[in-house]
Every structure is written in structure tokens, then in C-alpha cells.
Amino acid sequence: KTAGPETAASTASALQPAKAARPMIEIEDVSKWYGPIQVLKNCTTRVETGEVVVVCGPSGSGKSTLIKTVNGLEPFQQGRITVDGIAVGDPKTDLPKLRARVGMVFQHFELFPHLRIIENLRLAQMKVLGRSFEEATAKGLKLLDRVGIKMHADKYPGQLSGGQQQRVAIARALAMDPIAMLFDEPTSALDPEMINEVLDVMVALAKEGMTMMVVTHEMGFARKVANRVVFMDAGEIVEDAPTDAFFGSPRSERAQAFLSKIL
Ligand code: ADP
Ligand code: MG
């Protein structure tokens, strides 16, 4: 009996059942330098589909840099990152296309100030995904409703509070039907009374099964929805542990010191 390609493939998968479900985000041995300064040191972690991973650590530890490497906003010199199996560092990878599928929400809302809220939501849907005006409007309004901003659809970003603008930024990212969402300190520029309205949207998203990588110091959020916590210090992933284990008994002195300062 000759082994055709089909037989070979089924044999390979039978031998590697664990490989069937590949992680949504896989970061392997990633290092990055700014000139002579190494800012990421052999970072390895992964985010399974539907998982929420919180990244925390002191200021300057490399959290933003790490999360930006995931959708190709920051190049890296060593290691490997894949998103849904697509190699981010491969020069052949269509980065704009990848970025369209990985939502990113920053500390500063980065809405287009000269465009109305609904126009902010329509723009990339039409330009990048080729959706019609009607389709993009319907999707935009649905998502604005979901984050509680539908009544402000015709306003400009400057007419909304910081918390409202950040919820719009989340809705705008979701309008692209992302396969994963990256958040970089989405609440740290907000007045305290607005933090929860943004976290509530993120908690709902997590509970619906969105794959999320979240840089935050909101440890209440981490306890509530994170599957794992990654702790960084000086460019290294010092700890990568299930949430309960991380808060219950952080292994490293550096994580203990960090937690004792912020909790
Ligand atoms: P975090 O988000 O944890 O506060 P960052 O990822 O922003 O940390 O920064 C990690 C390190 O990289 C810091 O030492 C920072 O000063 C340095 N860094 C960040 N961006 C640049 C840049 N564009 N050029 C040079 N160094 C940078
Ligand atoms: Mg940062």
C-alpha cells in the first residue's frame, strides 16, 4: 500500500494529538534591543484561544514593548512570535492584514478627533475590510450599543469623557472582528471614577471567550478574569503562573515586592 499525502497527514496528527489546538498567541524566546540596550530578554509565553493573560510589572520592564511585538508594531531581533499560526517576524507576512485581525487598545484612546464616533467606527471597516457604508454603520451602532455609547454616535471624541472614549476605542477594535485583543494599560490614563466602566466592558469580553493579552495594574481585574498572570521585570518574564498561584504564592522576590507595593 502506497502512503499518499492524506495517509501521511493523518499519521502525523495521530502521533501529535497535543499539537492539534495551537495557541492563539505564541511568543518564543523573544529578545529585542534598542541600540545597545536589551529591552526584552528571551521572553517566552503563550495565550491559548479564549484565554485571558494579564501582563504586569514595574514601569520600564518591557510590557508595552512585548505586547507591541505581538502585532508587529515593534520589530524584534531574536525569537519567534505567531498569531493564529502566522509568523509575525516573517518578512513575507502581511502585517497590515494581521493588525486588522488583532485588536489593540492603548492607554490614550487614539480616536480620530475630527471624526464623529460612528465615523471612527466605520473607517477601518470600510477601508480595510471593504464593508459597505450600511454594513459598517450597522455593525458600528451594534457595538456602540454594547459598550453603552450608542446615544453619542454622532458626537465628536472631544465631547465624551475619557471612560466613554476608551469604550469607543474598544468598540472600534471589535468592529474588525478580531481574533484576539491586546490592551496596553487601558485604564491608567482615566480618572478613578471611570475605570470600572471600562473594566466592565473588558470583563464581559473576557467572559464571552475573547482571547486577550492585557497589560494592567488592575489586580482586581486580573483576579476576576485572568487565566494566567505574566510578571515582567527588566525585560524578562520572571513569572508566568495561573492567576491563583500568582496571587497566592508568587515565587520570585521581585513579584512579591511588586505585589506588596500595589495591593
Ligand atoms: P513598560 O511598558 O513596562 O513600562 P516599555 O516596554 O515601555 O516598558 O519600555 C521598556 C524599556 O525600553 C524601557 O527601559 C524604555 O525606556 C525602553 N524604550 C521603550 N521605547 C523605547 C524607544 N523607542 N527607544 C529606546 N528605548 C525605548
Ligand atoms: Mg508601558
From TrEMBL:
Main localization of the protein described in the UniProt heading: membrane
Alphabetized InterPro entries for the sequence: AAA+_ATPase, ABC_ATPase_HisP-typ, ABC_transporter-like_ATP-bd, ABC_transporter-like_CS, MetN_ABC_transporter-like, P-loop_NTPase
UniProt name for this protein: Arginine ABC transporter ATP-binding protein
Family of this protein: Belongs to the ABC transporter superfamily.
Membrane topology note: Peripheral membrane protein
Keywords: Amino-acid transport, ATP-binding, Cell membrane, Membrane, Nucleotide-binding, Transport
Lineage: Bacteria, Pseudomonadati, Pseudomonadota, Alphaproteobacteria, Hyphomicrobiales
Gene3D superfamilies per record: P-loop containing nucleotide triphosphate hydrolases
Signal peptide: none
Cell inner membrane found in the keyword field: no
Cross-referenced PROSITE patterns: ABC_TRANSPORTER_1, ABC_TRANSPORTER_2
Subcellular location: Cell membrane
Top-level taxon of the source organism: Bacteria
Domain ABC transporter: 25-259
